[in-house]
Amino acid sequence: MIQIDDKIVSTEILTTRFCCDLPRCKGICCVEGNAGAPLEADEVDTLEAEYETYKPYMKPEGIEAVERQGFMVIDEDGDYTTPLIGEAECAYSFEQDGITFCAIERAYNAGKTTFIKPISCHLYPIRLIAFGNGSVGLNYHRWNVCHDALALGREKGLPMYRMLKVPLIRRFGEEFFDALCSAAQYLNEQK
Q1: CB 136 within 8 Å of CB 142
Q2: Of 128, 168, 147, nearest to 10 (Cα)?
Q3: pLDDT < 50 positions in the chain
Q4: Model pTM greater than 0.85?
């Protein structure tokens, strides 16, 4: 672990090679699981306020799930999460050419909204943990559905934090990302 200001970062984020491989995994992380994607409190308001911008891109089953369950649900730990279709697939998903994508991100790419997608989805496989003292933990969430991403990351030599540069900057800022780069360089020099 390394600490940068009030963030505690698992060194695996700096050393693990990882690169999403959608043609192989088919976006399965949006389909499988036992709970929806974690949401930050302000994201719930955004999901509700901008629902009409991404609703046209959603599956009918996803629209039904949101309109029945709400823009978010509270999981067994008391955290806000995205609603699900059935017991696994994110309600905000859609499928194209056999690959599952995010309808919110599709609306963003079409210029319909300024909200890219929930930060937990954008940062995946990094998961954030809020500590009682106000600090935030960044951990690597291992999931067997990402084996293709590990293989492609090794092939490309791409560290996870580099693949996730845009969402890391989106959530924590440029200075934090620059500090991550410095920490990664230091770790490499110690080998």
Answers
A1: no
A2: 128
A3: none
A4: yes
